[in-house]
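Forum > Structural Biology > Help requests

Title: Can anyone predict the 3D structure of Sodium-dependent multivitamin transporter?

Hi all, first post here. I have the sequence for Sodium-dependent multivitamin transporter but no way to get a structure on my laptop. I'd be grateful if someone could post the structure tokens.
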Amino acid sequence: GPVGLGARQLKTLAMEFTVIDYSIFVLLLVLSSAIGLFYALSGDRQRTVQEFLLANRNMSFLPVALSLLATFQSAVAILGVPAEIFRSGTEYWFLGCSYLLGLLIPAHIFIPVFYRLRITSTYEYLELRFNKTVRVFGTITFIFQMVIYMGVVLYAPALALNAVTGFDLWSAVLTMGLVCTLYTTLGGLKAVIWTDVFQTLVMFAGQLAVIIVGAQRVGGMARVWHLADKEGKISGIDLDPDPFERHTFWTLAVGGVFMMLSLYGVNQAQVQRYLSARSEQEAKLSCYAVFPCQQIVLCLSCLTGLVMFVYNQEHPLAPNQRHSSPDQLVLYFVMDVLQDLPGLPGLFVACLFSGSLSTISSAFNSLATVTMEDLVRPHCPGLSESRATLLSKLLALGYGLLCLGMAYVSSMLGPVLQAAISIFGMVGGPLLGLFCLGMFFPCANPTGAITGLLAGLAMAFWVGIGGLLHNMRAAEAPPPPNGTALPAVGNLTTILTTTLLAPTPTPQSPTGLQKFYSLSYMWYSAHNSTTVILVGLLVSLLTGECGGVGGPAVSRPPSPSALPPRPHAASCCGPPHHLPGAAPPALLPAPEVQAEAVLWGDLPCPGKGPRPQHRGERGWCVVGAPPPAVLLLSPALSLQGADHADATVKSNGVGNGLAPPGLQEEEEGQGYIRAAGAPTYALQETSF
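Reply #1:
Sure, ran it for you. Structure tokens for Sodium-dependent multivitamin transporter below:
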């Protein structure tokens, strides 16, 4: 009978994982380690913090783009997206519509701000814009997000693989974790980026092998498409605007943009790659280059799902396999299709673990970066370059070992594993909202920022975890004992990953506040980031701190009345940032010497003579500033510096790694602070 066939087939699959397959898997690990060792022993040998954490800021756009792609193309995605297509049709494919805006906005708004600031940690921006407390809150939120996620992303695929193929669970977890820790600790970001490139190619190869062999066995891709269409798996455009529908065109194309922004706009793992590019232009190019790569990855995943569906029509799974968790479902299909082709099952397993390696290596590196820059350096200003580099390597090592610990914790979570995977998606939205609050709303103050972030996180966990529990209670069948039972509503991993699972039986429609539990997971980022912004603005208006109405006095630059006037559109909820009632800028100490501000504005300078006869005549004005000089970073300002002076300036304890730019003619509204015998800082106004 079919059950006997399924048991026999399962036994065969476990036996068919041959020496060749294991060899390919081992080759992946050896080559990944070799790349790490190569960068540990070549170049400057990872002797500076800048080389270890930012690859010396000299990467070209193509490896950066492939690394951006690999970072969140985790094994959960490789298993989850085909399972979604298999069960629900091609509706998910419309997510590709969100990629264009989801990458153009980071390229033209977030990258210029972060790159010109010459920062290492994204959260340095929060201190410049708000204060140190906001920076620490942002950093701790990110660490919480990544620490929980990295253990799950290593453990969940190994668990599925063990269930289907008999591949030893803890051998896989320990080997992958230790190899990844090795090359991340030795080779720094440069090794992480180049192993990502290699692992991306392995992922492409593994998925292509499955599609080509699978399609060939059912009569070609044209027949796959025809049969899938006949069975109603090729979805049309659903223009239903209801945000409570799991997948519609608007949910995927618009909600997906916010999910993309939380990943490619403000996530430390991705921003760190932009900052490693040799120029701002290369950083933008890497963002453009990710676009076609993502479309290819999405197509491969969706085609795998369609081939899986048609193959299942002609070679049905055994009943006990049919009810497996979705990640196991894909593996049963892959092993069945490839089992008589030695080496190809091993290639797919290598593809799977390439997804895990690229994700957790990025987690180690970004966690070491934020811990070093946001928590260690501010408290140890006299730390030498060599000690700082050693400490960064030890942090990467420590997070690698912690990842193994989290994988062990994941093994004991049981059903809670779903929630752990979902936490990654829940936290991304509030962090996006925090950065948008700082960049787009000059009236926002630190109190508003912290309150908004906490409100956004509370909303995220209430809707996310509440929805998860609501659906679990409504589900009739418990998850398989050896499966990860990925959630139907949880934003599993991220954009490409959103591992969407098996539709659980639809519960009775909730009412009142419980209605939020039915919110499509695709709207989580938009909903939570909007919560942060609205609460942040409301609290900022009520507290009026930092220069708002009724707020406490703060250190200020020369009176705006002494500066050349510049027209500026009023913000939505407060005066323009250069007026007395504006939200105050973050203040950075500059060298205690007499300084002067050189500003471009209307001629003549204030108090310097009659107005010119021709309107609109402009030129340079010099305005004295009282010592000690104060470097201003207004809510709508970014700083631009020259290349490659970051490590030197930081080690001297000046500013935030801003390098001295050349004084050159700039556009209207830009000015320069300069002080004798000290680095010069350029202030470039960036209004959105």
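The chain has 21 helices and seven strands. Residues 1-15, 476-507, 546-603, 606-688 have pLDDT under 50 and may be disordered.
Shout if anything looks off.
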